[in-house]
Specification:
Layout lengths: L9 H6 L4 E7 L3 H16 L6 E8 L3 H11 L3 E3 L2 H6 L5 E4 L7 H9 L3 E4 L7 H14 L3 E3 L7 H11 L6 E9 L16 H4 L3 H16 L3 E9 L4 E5 L2 E4 L5 E8 L4 E7 L8 E8 L2 E6 L5 E6 L10 E4 L21 H17 L10 H20 L3 E2 L3
Parallel strand pairs: 1-2, 1-4, 2-3, 4-5, 5-6, 7-12
Antiparallel strand pairs: 7-13, 8-11, 8-17, 9-10, 11-12, 13-14, 14-15, 15-16
């Protein structure tokens, strides 16, 4: 394993300064922008910083676009292929924000080169593709994390904390939906997310992977499930008068039985007019219920069974107090934060794991979590195809 994957803390400790960690970014679109914003914001908000991200290099296929991205985001240089990015000796953390079909090979190569690896979700198109990725990072001994950023929403982390201390008691139900609208128009054109060869799956991997991960993060391992999928629009405009075939699911619904006996429902679609980014779940448990909605991410709806006698329904709780997760780094209570800040919390967590050799799990999602989410996604597709319940086996 190469020495470049690890940070020498001796000089940093002697000088009292945070060590620098060299970032190599693959991709410059949606997630490249989100991750870069987090790297730049983290040192002065998560203060004092555990590390200073150094934006060493960014890679992409279009020279004009990647050159512009390097200039815009502040990367020192750019490459036109991921191999050169990984070969750069100053890159210590490889951040893969590319399309799903560009996750496996670069991440495996980065791990073998001794780089720590941060990969967007879903980790891979299938569990069979995710397994070698997990094996590679384990063999290399590098830190690894999958960008399930919703684990780092203060309200969701607060729910996890409540579950850990037993405040909810036994969990009976977990029902989650992740609803968007962006392809509901049948004239919306073909994009890579609608092509199975590139994406692996549709709403399932794009949105469903998030609520699958949250189900595991908050409730525990699913034991079996039964699911159905649907593709509503099977052809899309592909430019120049051509038509492209949609080869992924537009929506899925699954019934889940967890190993601890809880029941669950999971649903995602990109055909929900009016729903912009509606990641919403409810937990019903022995001592109460909690409901979360990402579109109101600083709030929770909470009901406690042993609450005041005159309290008949849910109470709205603003998760913005200084003692709530992550809030000590931000603003006075009530001055809310947004979606972008989940990535700030996420990269801070990963950089701390790198420089202080702390575990990424259980609060960050490792490649093990990414692999298990892929197994469950595969089970959804298998159940939808066969019409039968599928046992979850890792």
């Amino acid at each position: 394993m190469s020495d470049v994957g690890f940070v020498n803390m001796a000089g940093a400790k002697a000088s009292g300064q945070a060590p620098s960690v060299g970032i190599g970014m693959l991709g410059y679109a949606f997630m490249g922008k989100a991750h870069t914003n987090a790297y730049k914001k983290m040192p002065y908000m998560m203060y004092p910083p555990v590390a200073i991200p150094r934006l060493v290099a960014i890679a992409g296929r279009s020279e004009e676009a990647v050159k512009e991205a390097a200039l815009r985001y502040g990367y020192e240089r750019y490459y036109l292929d991921w191999q050169s990015l990984i070969a750069d000796p100053e890159v210590q953390l490889f951040d893969n924000g590319g399309p799903n079909d560009a996750h496996a090979e670069p991440c495996i190569a980065a791990a073998k080169a001794g780089k720590h690896v941060f990969c967007e979700k879903p980790l891979a198109r299938t569990a069979a593709e995710a397994k070698p990725m997990l094996e590679a990072v384990k063999a290399a001994g590098v830190k690894h994390m999958v960008a399930f950023n919703y684990r780092f929403v203060p309200a969701i982390r607060h729910i996890r904390n409540l579950i850990e201390i037993g405040a909810l008691g036994r969990i009976y139900h977990f029902r989650a939906v992740y609803l968007q609208e962006w392809i509901a128009d049948p004239n919306f054109p073909m994009v890579w997310r609608l092509d199975k060869a590139q994406a692996g799956s549709g709403a399932l991997g794009d949105l469903g992977a998030h609520i699958i991960d949250l189900a595991r993060f908050l409730v525990g391992e699913p034991g079996r499930l039964m699911a159905m999928t649907k593709t509503f629009i099977k052809e899309r405009p592909a430019g120049e008068g051509k038509v492209g075939k949609v080869t992924v699911d537009d929506a899925f619904t699954a019934l889940v039985e967890f190993e601890n006996g809880a029941m669950g429902t999971l649903e995602s679609t990109r055909f929900a007019p009016g729903r912009k980014n509606f990641n919403c779940f409810e937990i019903n448990a022995e001592k109460g219920s909690i409901r979360f909605n990402l579109e109101r991410m600083n709030e929770l709806e909470v009901f406690w069974r042993d609450g005041r006698p005159d309290t008949q329904g849910f109470a709205n709780v603003l998760v913005s107090e200084s003692d709530h997760p992550y809030w000590k780094h931000w603003w006075p209570h009530g001055h809310i934060i947004g979606w972008e800040h989940t990535f700030v919390h996420e990269v801070d967590h990963l950089l701390n794991a790198i420089v202080n050799n702390t575990p990424v799990e259980p609060y960050g999602a490792t490649f093990e979590d990414g692999y298990r989410a892929a197994v469950i996604c595969d089970a959804v597709l298998e159940s939808a195809e066969t019409g039968r319940a599928v046992d979850i086996r890792y």
